[in-house]
UniProtKB/TrEMBL annotation:
Cleavable signal peptide: none
PROSITE patterns, A to Z: TYR_RECOMBINASE
UniProt record, GO biological process: DNA integration; DNA recombination
InterPro entries: DNA_brk_join_enz, Integrase-like_cat_sf, Integrase_catalytic, Integrase_recombinase_N, Tyrosine_recombinase_XerCD
Species: Bradyrhizobium icense
Molecular function terms from GO: DNA binding
Domain Tyr recombinase: 165-335
The UniProt record lists the keyword Transmembrane helix: no
Official protein name in the record: Integrase
Transmembrane intervals: none
Stored PANTHER family: PHAGE INTEGRASE-RELATED (PTHR30349), TYROSINE RECOMBINASE XERD (PTHR30349:SF90)
Region called Disordered, residue ranges: 347-368
Keywords attached to this entry: DNA integration, DNA recombination, DNA-binding
């Protein structure tokens, strides 16, 4: 039985000879080495995933045994990596290639906590997001090294995760400001409602099509990240936005040329729309997903209800929204009670005369 090939790799027959090639969708074919178990194949495959038409020569050179480059090649042949979704592989390959390029010559046995912190993570001191992603991927490689017997313990233990600034929810005022700039009928306003009222990620919004909408005004979504299949009723504001929008393609949101967006292209286009609305840089498209969760919680939706819309896989993720809404509501009720208590308080006796002993008339003062 032929070996199962990685995503986007084809077997081609030409004049009785079999060769392997990389092809994403209807894009061009890129020739790959014929042995899918070789390090040369994995290096060429990495380059093709990164969109490089021809791999650099040193990528085709076999990695020295026991090095980080050899560990990366071993991991990419593992069932754990092969079982990842294509979208996850794309994110992994970029970071793994950076580790291979910058640290591939280092030995796995020489990894220590100090070397990881100073040699691998320190260059990202001003980019905590990149530092966190690097640490995550490095720990995946370390776990693989332990599984195959290259390491006996985890040298990254005790390294604190870099703190990154979380994407915040849009405020009600910011939502209204965007709507004021982009009226109904515009592509920007339509995309805005798909984000806000459906609470989905950009990778899901960019793929939404007319064929996903049912006659009952619901939309079917298969989340790219989690694989969850959702059926969500369309909010009346979303229905109004779709009715006002002139859709000329099966995909709802398209480029100016009527083509489907890439995820990154869609994100950049939405970023431009947000900037043109005069909103701050920390108003991000993903913040509309956060706003959806916040608004659902403030409307009294339970954590499980929020999960059914946003597609969270754990209850704890959805409970954050309900806890924040409960805190805000309870605080408001508490202040109202305090104000009412003060307003209804009966005024105390004035301080004039307090502590003075009232004068009493003696017998001589009494009138006979």
């Amino acid at each position: 039985m032929p070996r199962k090939l990685p995503p986007h790799v084809e077997r081609n027959q030409v004049k009785g000879h079999t060769y392997l090639s990389f092809r994403r969708g209807k894009g061009p074919r890129v020739r790959l080495p014929n042995d899918p178990t070789s390090e040369e194949f994995m290096a060429a495959y990495q380059a093709a995933l990164l969109g490089q038409s021809a791999p650099v020569r040193d990528r085709l050179a076999p990695a020295a045994p026991g090095t980080i480059a050899a560990l990366i090649a071993s991991y990419m042949r593992s069932a754990e990596y092969i079982g990842l979704r294509d979208t996850s592989k794309t994110g992994y390959i970029s970071r793994l290639e950076t580790l291979r390029t910058e640290h591939g010559h280092r030995t796995v046995a020489g990894l220590s906590r100090e070397r990881i912190v100073t040699g691998i993570l320190q260059p990202y001191a001003d980019r905590p997001g990149a530092a966190l992603d690097t640490l995550k991927k490095l720990r995946i490689l370390i776990r693989h090294a332990i599984n195959i017997g290259w390491l006996k313990h985890d040298p990254s233990l005790g390294i604190k995760r870099p703190k990154i600034k979380k994407i915040r929810s849009w405020t009600d005022d910011e939502i209204e400001q965007f709507k004021k700039r982009w009226p109904l009928g515009t592509k920007q306003r339509t995309a805005f409602h798909l984000f806000l009222n459906l609470g989905q990620r950009r990778s899901d919004v960019v793929r939404m099509a007319q064929t996903h909408i049912t006659p009952e005004r619901k939309i079917r979504i298969k989340q790219q990240k989690t694989g969850r299949e959702l059926l969500i009723p369309l909010h009346r504001d979303t229905v109004e936005a779709l009715d006002a929008y002139d859709m000329q393609h099966v995909v709802i949101i398209t480029t100016a040329y009527g083509k489907s967006f890439t995820v990154d292209g869609f994100s950049g286009w939405m970023r431009d729309a947000i900037s043109e609305a005069g909103l701050p840089l920390d108003c991000k498209p993903h913040g509309l997903r956060k706003a959806a969760g916040r608004l659902l919680a403030e409307a009294g939706a339970t954590a499980k209800m929020i999960m059914s819309v946003l597609g969270h896989t754990t209850l704890a993720e959805a409970e954050r929204y309900t806890e924040e809404a409960d805190q805000a509501g309870l605080a408001e009720d508490a202040v109202i009670k305090l104000e009412g208590h003060k307003a209804n308080r009966i005024a105390q006796t004035t301080s004039v005369g307090l502590g003075k002993t009232p004068k009493t008339r003696g017998k001589s003062d009494r009138k006979e």
